[in-house]
Design goal:
single chain; Jelly Rolls
Length: 195
């Protein structure tokens, strides 16, 4: 069984723990260095790597940036896999790794009726697209968010801090995250945003 395609019975905690540890070591980072770059506590990172802490969406996105991988690089590419926090649940619909090393991830995103999810910047050149299917949302680059209702689609640079919120009773839709290949050839670079 390949290293990054765990048994279906393996818990998300264990799979995420193994991936974070492997990526951190591959990049020559100590626990302290990665925790500092991700803006999380060293104890939190240690518990994630031990598989004893729940991997929340916010923490995983905070780690994905410094590790230079898309979200699926941490949670796996199994359709239906999901992560959540108090505001957002993201369930993977599909992921494609392109010949150049870039990725396109497609998630079913559910935004709770209350609260705002602030997401850290992802890798350089990352672009996000959100099409609202039900409800209404306020999404985009922090401080420049835009409103959207069912049928609307918005795009923004995901390599800057951005947020997700519902403007009235919750929202659901399709979130597509395009992460270009890294400039060093190992996977996050440049993309052009189209509106």
């Amino acid at each position: 069984m390949p290293e990054d395609k765990p048994d279906r019975d393996e818990s998300l905690h264990s799979a995420v723990a193994r991936r974070i540890t492997r990526l951190r070591r591959d990049r020559g980072l100590s626990l302290s260095a990665l925790a500092l770059q991700a803006g999380i506590g060293k104890g939190t990172l240690s518990e994630l790597e031990a598989g004893t802490r729940n991997p929340t969406l916010g923490t995983l996105y905070a780690l994905a940036g410094p590790l230079g991988v898309p979200l699926t690089g941490l949670v796996g590419d199994g359709t239906g896999r999901g992560v959540s926090d108090d505001v957002v649940e993201a369930r993977l619909l599909s992921v494609r790794t392109h010949d150049d090393g870039g990725t396109t991830e497609v998630f079913w995103l559910t935004i709770a009726s209350a609260g705002t999810r602030v997401s850290p910047a992802h890798g350089p050149g990352t672009v996000e697209h959100f099409r609202v299917v039900r409800g209404s949302a306020r999404v985009g680059v922090l401080g420049a968010e835009q409103d959207a209702t069912a049928g609307d689609a918005l795009s923004w640079h995901g390599d800057t801090v951005h947020s997700y919120a519902s403007t009235d009773g919750g929202a659901e839709g399709v979130l597509t995250i395009e992460t270009p290949a890294r400039r060093d050839g190992s996977g996050a670079g440049h993309a052009v945003i189209m509106r």
